[in-house]
Amino acid sequence: MRDLLVVQNLTKTFKLSKKQQRIEKTKLKVKVAVNDLSFTTKRGEIYGLLGPNGAGKTTTLRMLSTLIKPDSGEALVDGYSVTKNPTEVRHRIGFLTSDLKLEPHFTPNYLFDFFGALQNVDPNILKERKNHLFNKFGIEEFKEVKVSNLSTGMRQKVSLVISIVHDPEIIIFDEPTNGLDVITAKTVTDFLIELKNLGKTIILSTHIFSLVEKLCDRVGIIIEGRMVADDLLETMTKDKSLEDYFFELYEIHGGNDLWKTF
Asked: How many CB atoms neighbour CB 62 within 10 A?
């Protein structure tokens, strides 16, 4: 299988305000969020970015999704550059993050059609996809309910189906089960497996070992913005648990300050 996503030496820094310097207990005026990060994923693969909070996972996914630009480095999605061909990239990816806030005054029905039109999905295909996804995730009976009146779990499911309204080849999830009840979380993880079986490439960030062990083919471990390990899950867990493997690397590359963020 060819590499569908190629990430080459991505680096991203952010300027810190005086308030942020106090919060981070540093005198540095610039924070390196992602530091020379590289990895690849193949078609039909689930790739997990595993790391503590603040490690740079979300920043990495935002660069891959063309929401922010890297300071240096490059990423190619199906051959298209995230910096030079952002429109082409957006047509090929779906991005779901807990930061996505749906307009509270609109309904799932309206939002699905709206984002489908933005992605130039054929109306007949859009209708079929909405019928399939709304029934699969139990949204159908709530399709005319305003987002503000939906439960947290239902809003997450609506966000998920909207993120894949255009049937993208690469689906990027930032903490896909964060804040969900166990039933909704299982619905989401089962769907990720189904998408993989359909040949989709999935990238997810998480700090949950069990989620990685259940879903992922390959794992990249990221600590303080750096990729410290990138291998098949079965290789990482050949002689020890993923948790033990992670904390061995953490002791080498992390530091005591990270314990409070994990």
From this structure: 21
Domain ranges of the chain: 3-95+168-261
Architecture label for domain 3-95+168-261: 3-Layer(aba) Sandwich (3.40)
Give pLDDT tens digits along the chain (262 positions).
578 999 999 999 998 888 887 877 788 888 899 999 999 999 999 999 999 988 999 999 999 999 999 999 999 999 999 999 999 999 999 998 866 678 899 999 999 999 999 999 999 999 999 999 999 999 999 999 999 999 888 888 899 999 999 999 999 999 888 777 888 888 888 989 999 999 999 999 998 999 999 999 999 999 999 999 999 999 999 999 999 999 999 988 865 454 444 3
3-state helix, strand, coil in the chain (%, to 5): 40, 25, 30
